[in-house]
Amino acid sequence: MDLTALDDLSQDELWDARAAAAYDTPGTGMFAAEVLGPTVDRLAELADDGAALEFAIGTGRVAIPLAERGVPVTGIESSAAMIERLRDKVDERALPVVQGDMATTRVEGEFSLAFLVFNTIANLLTQEEQVECFRNAAAHLRPGGRFVIELWVPDLRGTSRAAPAQVFTVADGYVGLDAVDMVNQRVVSHHFRFDRDPADRRRATLGRTPHRYIWPAELDLMARLAGMELESRHADWSGGEFTAESGSHVSVYRLVDA
Question: Which InterPro entries does the annotation name (predicted)?
Answer without folding.
Answer: Methyltransf_25, SAM-dependent_MTases_sf
